[in-house]
Amino acid sequence: MRDRGQLVDVAMARTKPDMVIRNVRLVNVLSREIHCADILIAGQRIAAVLPANEGGEGYRTTIDGTEKFAAPGLIDPHVHIESSMISVREYARMVIPRGTTMVAADPHEIGNVLGIPGMRVLLDEAAQSPLRVKFRVPGRIPAMPEWLETSNGSVSVQETRELFDWPEAVCLAGDINPSLVLEKDAEQFDKFDQAEQLGRLISGQSPGLRGRALAAFLAAGPEDSHVARSVDEIIENTRLGMASVLALRPGRVLDASHLEELAQICKSRNIDTRQFQLCTDDIHAHDLMHEGHLDHRLRAAIEAGFDAVEAYQFATINVAHGLRIAHDYGSIAPGRVADILLLSNLQSVSVETTIIGGEIVCASDEYFGPTERVSYPDWAKSTIKYKRPLKADDFHVKPKNNNKIAQVLVISNSKGKGKVTRQEELPVQDGVVQPDSGRDINVMAMVERHGKNGDIGLGFSDAAGLKYGALACSVNHDAHNIAIFGANHDDMATAANRILEIGGGFVLVRDGKIVAELALPIAGLMSDDKAEVVAEAMQDVRTAFREQLGGNPDDKALIYMNFLALPNIPAFGFTDKGLIASDKMQPIETVIG
Amino acid sequence: MRDRGQLVDVAMARTKPDMVIRNVRLVNVLSREIHCADILIAGQRIAAVLPANEGGEGYRTTIDGTEKFAAPGLIDPHVHIESSMISVREYARMVIPRGTTMVAADPHEIGNVLGIPGMRVLLDEAAQSPLRVKFRVPGRIPAMPEWLETSNGSVSVQETRELFDWPEAVCLAGDINPSLVLEKDAEQFDKFDQAEQLGRLISGQSPGLRGRALAAFLAAGPEDSHVARSVDEIIENTRLGMASVLALRPGRVLDASHLEELAQICKSRNIDTRQFQLCTDDIHAHDLMHEGHLDHRLRAAIEAGFDAVEAYQFATINVAHGLRIAHDYGSIAPGRVADILLLSNLQSVSVETTIIGGEIVCASDEYFGPTERVSYPDWAKSTIKYKRPLKADDFHVKPKNNNKIAQVLVISNSKGKGKVTRQEELPVQDGVVQPDSGRDINVMAMVERHGKNGDIGLGFSDAAGLKYGALACSVNHDAHNIAIFGANHDDMATAANRILEIGGGFVLVRDGKIVAELALPIAGLMSDDKAEVVAEAMQDVRTAFREQLGGNPDDKALIYMNFLALPNIPAFGFTDKGLIASDKMQPIETVIG
Q: What whole-number distance in Å separates Cα of residue B140 and Cα of residue B146?
């Protein structure tokens, strides 16, 4: 609760502010203007915004804003910090200099691995950094019923209600299978009721839903989606009152060319953009360092042709409205929390200074938050549990008949369509279906790793496109079992067993030798090392993936492989139970007939 | 709570909707477009919005929307129903055919007279009509400390907290003296804390506040104001994050010419108008019938040059956002409550059919809500209590010296400036300062009428401008004591005593005879009669006021006289303690020296 008296006294010039930003070009996301102003800060909040040079002088901290822009701190409404593979502390150190002052995080990755204690330990770590980390209460843990996927963590309806009482809680997260909504899942509807009773946003995701299905999804309660795949879909969402959280996925389902088309349509038809928001969703440390964070999405929106101040609205006030926190965050105005960026250039989002809660937390690339190595408890760092060591024949796909050729379904990542399958013929030797490096078709396995049943889902994929060796990885949304892609069965076993030794991460093997690896000991998802170290190791993994294993040359291939598992969103998933049809929520036979 | 399953089933065409509006031009306040659509309604809510003619056929109620517009029901964010002088039932019957489907009402008029039971009885009456009446929890009852004004009702901080639990409660109302905020009134700040803890809007009013004072007001918590007096003030409010609730007061502080200027500035600078809302605040039954309700304000906004759909946003989605109910109200979209207007003309706001909660409540001017005479309990209808009958010399202003000429302050309504005072000389006869009809200067009295102390505030005013006789009235914001304006003392006593006999209302007297009257027996504020009867009686009062008493020819003079009392907003008020300076919250001597 704000100190109303202090703010009034400072605004009325009865007492002095703690900080004044003088004569700055204010990026006013409320009126959608840029105008010169003095900003007076008292404690954590803004006490007054006055005409330039009317704020008085002689205060403890005076910042000369001449020639600079002041914008509200950027707010990311939809992230999964675990996907960065770095600790929250390191994530904060990466994003704050780029202008992100708040993220709304759904920690359902660590939640699926470690349950509620896992989410709590991550948020406790977050509390030690200056980044504001709001808690998107996970919509569904585990994501799938146990007969479709083995997970570890679980959160009941009653526990979900209790999670809303956590001080960081901001909304009900919506990264769930839309068919749960369309099929009127009682548990999901109970959670919607909870959120509604508490006056919280019900977040959703409606990938590709249109017409009646989209209406049904919205009518049930969810209010936003971050997985639109086309401009048409975004326009339909906007008309139907679904906030479009634009998660740019470069080269994938929504990219810069879509944004350009969207900007043009909005301009020519004068479409109201107040429901547009920007988000990063899942972003690797390496991409975060090289592309940027929300600043990258914001630059893209400006480059796409949106008016600059309007684009800043997408990353500030519109997000705050969506999260129902606009009375506190998302704009520079009296009474609002003093989360403020000073920029040298608006279009390029060139952040010079980041102020959070009235404190300078980063200036001229010097970061004042904690930088020492993070410490997680041991129970959060020993999470890979196999029933027994893995052997080459654990990865043998055996057809039921004696044919020399097997008809199989190959799961693949399509740039335009997401996850697809296609039918292929593969040779059978000694009763085992063989991969075919010539056509990039690898054996794909998903090994249960929570120590529960040791199940192994088997099939084929060309997503990794390995010519040689094998790749194992412990990041596989949302259950985070161990995915292994292999051009041969022996290297698959080696890679899988090495994952156990390093506590999770990425392991690349060729001819029985480890050629690159990245350890992610925190829940098998995150490193406790420096972001730079993780990014460099990830770069080594990417390079080895392409150069030594002959893997998919697409720069983002390794990221999208992490989502091949996910049975939540169309059209397919791949779990420790094998290939899953997302819409029907049923397993599919990999070997046909 | 919505029936999510039912809505999903209807949207998915698994079960039939209760109503379909086919092939209508949808006024989409979400995307700010007009597009053709079918609207499917299930129970109280919208199940789907589909492309035109895709909604299917053969349902219980099918409305052909061809050539018609469908707009969300209009929402008035700031009204005082008592000011209409008709019951809520009659108010509903007047406003629903004009397209208003919800009002957020602050019943602090009846609250000042009858306390919490008075507000409850009014809301209970409201519940019997199809109009949605949300409850703005009054910010301050009584408005003034007892040494500045005698009121009857009172609501403590603790009781205010309990009022938020009423099912109709929507926000903390803000019709309070802004100096309470600027002077850090502890009780007011406690109420702000309550509203903030509950996630409710803190409404405010900041008439004429600019610069540091405006910043201080906003920093303390209030988020909107309905009393801006100039376009400059509206722009400053917008920049600082204060929602502008535009209460057009024709011919007064904000009128059509201001709206035109505002529309032009917003267009030329591309200013974001999402914070703009329209309201009616206080409106007499007579004006309601002849000018209209929110439809009148909406027409004015369109005529002023705002884009039509944008103007509809001011009366629908923007209001719903302000009141934090946009997930349920203010747009036509799946899941939202089915409060829908069918219009033959968008610009003229020509409403043909009003649907509230999926039910047709008015069609082709036929109103289906309750129309029988309303019944209020006796305790709500015997509220005028004098200590004793009034006599002519109760209204004698006696100077302290023996001069033949008295210097007095005359309180007046200025079209541009609100309430002002000026100094005048008046003759003294037999120790009594005499009114001067030649200069329109009447004796003004405010008689305490709650049976508490019988105090009488005395002074002079030219607001009524009576040439003859006297006018007495029981509607005087916010304490609703009895105001009497007189060209002579005898007629003042006659008028005042007649008010007691009829239980409150308006009484006009000339030469000892009653020439017109309107009884308002419910709390001395509202009639229990038909709106048409009240409007006609009010018309008679207005005519007699001008023609028989020679009163102020301004059509709205009688309305603005009701606010002459109000010490809440600048610069003056007139209570049973006499003339009050609003900013200093102190009485002022009427006779100088």
A: 13
> CB contact, 8 Å: A211 with chain B?
yes
Residues of chain A neighbouring B197 (CB-CB closer than 8 A): 1
In whole angstroms, how far apart are CA A423 and each of A412, A413, A426, A433, A566? 11, 14, 10, 14, 20
| Whole-Å CA distances, A317 to A274, A312, B274, B369 | 9, 8, 11, 41
The predicted complex's ipTM stands at 0.94
Nearest CB among A28, A192, A313 relative to B239 is that of: A28
Mean pLDDT value of segment B387-391:
95
Q: Do A272 and B216 touch (CB under 8 A)?
A: no
**Residues of B whose CB is below 8 A from A219:** 2, 4, 7-8, 10-11, 45-48, 334-335
Q: What is the mean pLDDT of chain B?
A: 95
List b or e across B18-57, with b for residues whose CB sees 16 or more CB atoms inside 10 angstroms.
bbbbbbbbbbbbbbbbbeebbbbbbbebbbbbbebeebbe
Residues 6+ apart with CB under 8 A from B501: none
| Predicted local confidence at residue A34, as pLDDT | 98
Task: Kindly determine whether residue A215 and residue B11, on different chains, have CB atoms separated by under 8 Å.
Answer: yes
pLDDT bin (cut points 50, 70, 90) of residue A415 is confident
Rounded Cα distance between B215 and B224, Å, is 13
Which is more confidently placed, A46 or B564? Answer: A46
Tens of pLDDT, residues A539-563: 999 999 999 999 999 888 888 888 8
Number of other residues whose CB lies within 10 A of the CB of residue A34: 17
Express each pLDDT in A300-342 by its tens digit.
999 999 999 999 999 999 999 999 999 999 999 999 999 999 9
Give SS3 for A67. Answer: coil
Cα–Cα distances in angstroms (integers) from residue A18 to residues A21, A42, A63, A196, in the given order: 10, 5, 11, 39
DSSP H or E run through A264: helix A256-269
Residue type for position A130: P
Q: Is the pLDDT of residue B395 over 80?
A: yes
Q: Is A35 at the interface with chain B, CB within 8 A?
A: yes
Nearest residue on chain A to B236, alpha-carbon basis: A31
Interface probe for B, chosen from A6, A32, A192 (most Cβ of B below 10 Å), is A32
- The alpha-carbon radius of gyration of chain B (Å, integer) is 25
Apex B247 CA angle, B246 and B248, nearest 5: 105
* CA-based nearest distance B214→chain A, Å: 9
pLDDT digits (tens, 9 = 90+) for A375-400: 999 999 999 999 999 999 999 999 98
pLDDT (mean) for B75-83? 97
pTM above threshold 0.80 = yes
Distances from the Cα of A69 to the Cαs of A339, A350, A358, A367, in angstroms? 14, 10, 17, 20
Whole-number Cα distances in Å, A234 to A208, A243, A272: 10, 9, 12
Model pLDDT, residue A559: 83
What's the CA gap between B386 and B381, in Å, rounded? 15
Q: Of A124, A119, A125, which Cα lies nearest the Cα of A528?
A: A125
Closest-CA distance, A247 to chain B, in angstroms, reads 20
Residue numbers in A near B51 (CB within 8 A): 211
* One-letter-per-residue 3-state SS of B74-136: EEEEEECHHHHCCCHHHHHHHHHHHCEEEEEECCHHHHHHHHHHHHHHHHHHHCCCCCEEEEE
Cα separations (Å) of B56 from A577, B11, B22, B48? Answer: 41, 11, 9, 12
Paired with A20 in beta bridges are A40, A62
> Residues, chain A, total?
593
Cβ B164 vs Cβ B200: under 8 Å: yes
Q: Is B489 helix (H, G, I), strand (E, B) or coil?
A: helix
Distance from CA of A184 to the nearest CA of B (A): 6
Residue B253 binned pLDDT confidence (cut-offs 50, 70, 90)? low
In DSSP terms, which residues pair with A406 in a beta bridge?
A426
